[in-house]
Amino acid sequence: MIKNTIIGLMIPFLGTILGSACVFFLKKDMSENLKKALSGFAAGVMVAASIWSLIIPAMEQSSDMGKLSFVPAVIGFWFGILFLLAIDALTPHLHANSKEPEGVKSRLKNTTMLVLAVTIHNIPEGMAVGVVFASWISGEETVSFSAALTLAIGLAIQNFPEGSIVSGPMLSEGTSKGKAFGYGVLSGAVEPVAAAITIIATTFIKSALPYLLGFAAGAMIYAVVEELVPEMSQGKHSNIGTISFAFGFTLMLALDVALG
Description:
The protein is mainly alpha-helical. It has one domain (2-17, 50-233, 246-259). The chain has 9 helices and no strands. The chain has helices at 2-21, 32-61, 71-90, 110-137, 145-167, 177-188, 190-202, 209-233, 240-259. α1 (2-21) packs parallel to α5 (145-167), α2 (32-61) packs parallel to α9 (240-259) and α4 (110-137) packs parallel to α7. 52% of the residues are buried.
C-alpha cells in the first residue's frame, strides 16, 4: 500500500517534469494559440477532476446525512476558495503574458514570480491527489485504488502542458533552457509534498475526509477561474481554448468512469 501510494503521488510530478522538458525543443517562446490550447486543456481536466474525483465522492462519503449530504462538500469547497484567495493575495506572483504582478509588493524577479504563480495552484492539485489516496488508505468504499490512480494520471496529463506553460515563457525573459526547465520542475515539486502532508493530516481526522475533498475541489476551481480561463481567452478571439477545454474535460471524465 505504501509503495503504491508513493508511486501515485509522484505520477503528477512526472507529468510536470516531462512538460517542462519541452523547453529544450523550443526555438523561441510558444505561440499564443498553443498557450491558449494548453491552458484550456488543463482547465478542462481540472474541472472534471474536481467534480468526479472530489465533489461526488465527498457527497457519497456523507450519504448518512441524507438530503444534507452536500453540506461537507460545500463547506470544504468554500474553505478551498478562501484558502487560495488568501494565498493569491499574500504571495507575490506574475501570470504568464501579464506585466502587473499580483500579491504583496516585492523585488522578486519576473521569472521567480512566474514560478510562484504556477506553484500556487499546484498546491490544491497535490492536496487533491493526497486526499483521494487518503480515502483509499482509510478503507472508504467510495474510493478505490484505481480511482485514486486515475486522478493521479489525469493530473499528470494536465501537468504536461502546465509544465510547458511555466517553462516556455521564461525564454522570452532571457532565461536559459536549463534554468527554465529547472524552474518548471520546481513549480511542480510542491505537489507530492502537499499530497503527503494531506495524507498525514487525514490519518488523525478521518471524519474530515469529505470536507477535505470539497476543499481540494474548491481550491482547484479557484485556480482554473483565476489563472487558466483568463489565459485561454486573452488576446485575439479564438475558439481553440474552448475546444481544448472540452477535450480535457471529456478526457478526464472518460478516464474517471472507465478506470475508476
